[in-house]
Write a structure and sequence with these properties.
Layout: E1 2-3, E2 9-18, E3 24-32, E4 38-48, E5 54-62, E6 72-78, E7 87-97, E8 103-104, E9 111-112, H1 122-131, E10 140-142, E11 145-147, E12 153-155, H2 168-174, H3 177-266, H4 281-284
Antiparallel strand pairs: 1-9, 2-3, 3-6, 4-5, 4-7, 7-8, 10-11, 11-12
Helix pairs in contact: 1-3
């Protein structure tokens, strides 16, 4: 993509929305890369299709903006008369400030700012893992420019990336292919060791939990057996008491019956029994 790296604002992303009444709206998020308040931006918008081919070119202009220095700002663009497109690129041509002279694009400063290629493989995996998800290339210096891992071309005199804010010297020193692979492999080893330690700790916790559960079960079984033994002793004691009481009662009945039987056979008549009248033979004569 051709761009002027000195442009005070940069398009970060574009999102589209379609409403129920058929209206379409685009949300364009820019970054104010200066220490000034931006009040308006305008430029050339390239609409790209599914195959990244250009669908159409449009001139756009956003006014009455109040974009703080170093902050992101979003502009709304109605798409009612726009053809369908997947994404877009914007080359800003004019940027106005609140209290400073406006910035205007110079075709002499245009240059191809396509990031260096980053092929699939271990190096890409390592770089993205260490530098972040916005990583698109290895950093490098090109004469008076330096390219950040985010793909942004910066002037060499800029100590930090105008897009992501990464520090130039730290980025160029740390994210070389050899150092990235070495640091990534060391990080992988640490991660594996930590993961192994987590597995060991997890196994130990599982063993402790199993032992605790088994101890609880054993304690429960012991309490259950103790309760059963106690119930058996109580039941046995109750049966013994009932047996003794029954025996005493039976013995008492037997004794009472014997007393009644033998007393009625050899004893004196009861005192209240009426006497038998005698016969006086003399009176009869």
């Amino acid at each position: 993509m051709l761009m002027d790296i000195a442009c005070p604002a940069e398009l970060l992303r574009i999102e589209q929305a379609e409403f129920g009444d058929g209206r379409r709206l685009a949300y364009l998020t820019f970054l104010n890369e200066t220490d000034k308040l931006i009040t308006a931006v305008s430029g050339r918008m390239t609409l790209l299709g599914a195959g990244s081919g250009a669908v159409e070119f449009r001139q756009i202009c956003f006014e009455a903006i109040s974009a703080p220095p170093g902050e992101k700002f979003t502009c709304h663009l109605p798409l009612d008369d726009f053809p369908l497109f997947d994404t877009a690129e914007i080359s800003l041509e004019h940027v106005s400030f609140a209290a400073d002279a406006p910035w205007a694009l110079s075709t002499r400063r245009l240059m191809d700012c396509t990031p260096p290629p980053l092929n699939e493989g271990p190096e890409r995996v390592a770089l993205v893992a260490l530098a972040g998800r916005d990583t698109v290339c290895f950093p490098e210096r090109r004469d008076a420019l330096w390219i950040c891992v985010c793909g942004r071309y910066n002037r060499w005199r800029w100590p930090a990336c105008r897009r992501c804010g990464r520090v130039r010297d730290e980025v160029l020193a740390r994210f070389t292919p050899a150092r990235v692979l070495k640091e990534y492999q060391a990080a992988v080893q640490v991660f594996r060791a930590q993961d192994q330690q987590r597995l060991i700790e997890k196994a130990e916790l599982a063993a402790e939990e199993k032992a605790r559960v088994q101890a609880q079960k054993a304690e429960f079984r012991a309490k259950t057996a103790k309760k059963k033994a106690h119930k058996k002793r109580v039941a046995l004691r109750e049966r013994r008491v009932v047996s003794v009481a029954t025996g005493v009662l039976v013995l008492s009945l037997l004794i009472w019956g014997a007393i009644q039987l033998f007393g009625s056979l050899g004893g004196e008549p009861p005192e209240n029994a009426a006497p038998t009248p005698g016969v006086d033979y003399l009176d009869a004569l």
